[in-house]
Amino acid sequence: MNQVTDTMLNHVTHRIFDKNFEIDDRTIQTIIDCLKKAPTHINGQFYSVIVVRDLEKRKRLVELNPLNGHILKSSVFLLFIADFNRSRIIIESNDIHHDFGKNIDNLFVAGIDAGLAAMNAVNAIESLELGCVIVGGVRYHAKETIQLFNLPKFTYPLFGLSIGKPLDNPTKSPRLPKVLNVFEENYNTIPSDFFNDYDQLLIDSRVTQGSIWSESIFNYFEKDTLKTVTKENLEAQGLLS
Ligand SMILES: Cc1cc2nc3c(=O)[nH]c(=O)nc-3n(C[C@H](O)[C@H](O)[C@H](O)COP(=O)(O)O)c2cc1C
């Protein structure tokens, strides 16, 4: 164990920030330098980050995502976007047109690149005794977010990251027991009632505040809210055809 592993093992998502805390530019640059060092597919760096300090923009993001009010009260908000716009420029400089939307693997590539970069940012932030919350909520209003930040074709807003001085003290969220998602050599059979114990564990640890984990998973897929929205917006951005 060392400071790095301690930081990772003590991870919690913070959602209440000191709105008067000003993060200095050096700290922001350190976080950005760390996230940019994350491994990336073929060194392609198929993502971009928009540093959002502007309060009007952040107010608009909260209007769109009322459940993510921390976007306004944090000290800075980073928007992570999938980005094949730079690739398009390289390809077109060879007088070739490429249909990015034909290869669905591109969505993995950009999502993984951006996710790894974000995780580097989270670890850097937490090691600096600041706190953060990843905001996947931006995808529910991807069209408006694309307009708000003038995102060009072949880019897509994936998630945001609110960063600030935390005022809350959240309980650490226990993860699934390893037997359910860490396997040796082959995928193992999962007992069909596995979730009862995990539901209870989360209730006992007071993480879910009365709601039941397996019900939240059920409801998420039952609603499937993003199914149509994401398909249409990816098509409009040239990332699905
Ligand atoms: C892709 C992704 C999207 C998320 N979106 C949101 C969000 O929109 N709002 C929010 O409050 N938390 C969001 N979270 C944070 C998760 O809710 C949180 O990580 C999870 O409940 C586990 O808690 P912990 O991070 O404290 O261990 C998101 C996390 C990830 C990885």
Please characterize this protein's 3D structure:
This protein is an alpha+beta fold. The protein has one domain (3-172): NADH Oxidase. The protein is 45% helix and 12% strand. The protein is built from 11 helices and 4 strands, in the order H-H-E-H-H-E-H-H-E-H-E-H-H-H-H. It has helices at 3-9, 25-36, 55-64, 70-73, 85-92, 105-127, 142-148, 178-181, 194-204, 213-223, 226-236, and strands at 47-52, 76-83, 131-135, 155-164. The radius of gyration is 19 Å and the shape is globular. The mean pLDDT is 97. Bound molecules: flavin mononucleotide. Flavin mononucleotide is lined by residues 11-13, 15, 68, 133-137, 159, 170, 173.
Key terms for this structure?
single chain; 241 residues; alpha+beta; NADH Oxidase; 4 strands; globular; binds flavin mononucleotide
Oligomer: single chain
Number of domain units? 1
Fourth CATH level, the homologous superfamily: NADH Oxidase
Low-confidence stretches: none
The major sheet is characterized as: 4 strands, antiparallel
Radius of gyration: 19 Å
CATH class: Alpha Beta
**Amount of helix:** 40-55%
What is the general shape? globular
* Amino-to-carboxy terminus distance: 47 Å
What integer is the average pLDDT? Answer: 97
Number of H/I helices: 11
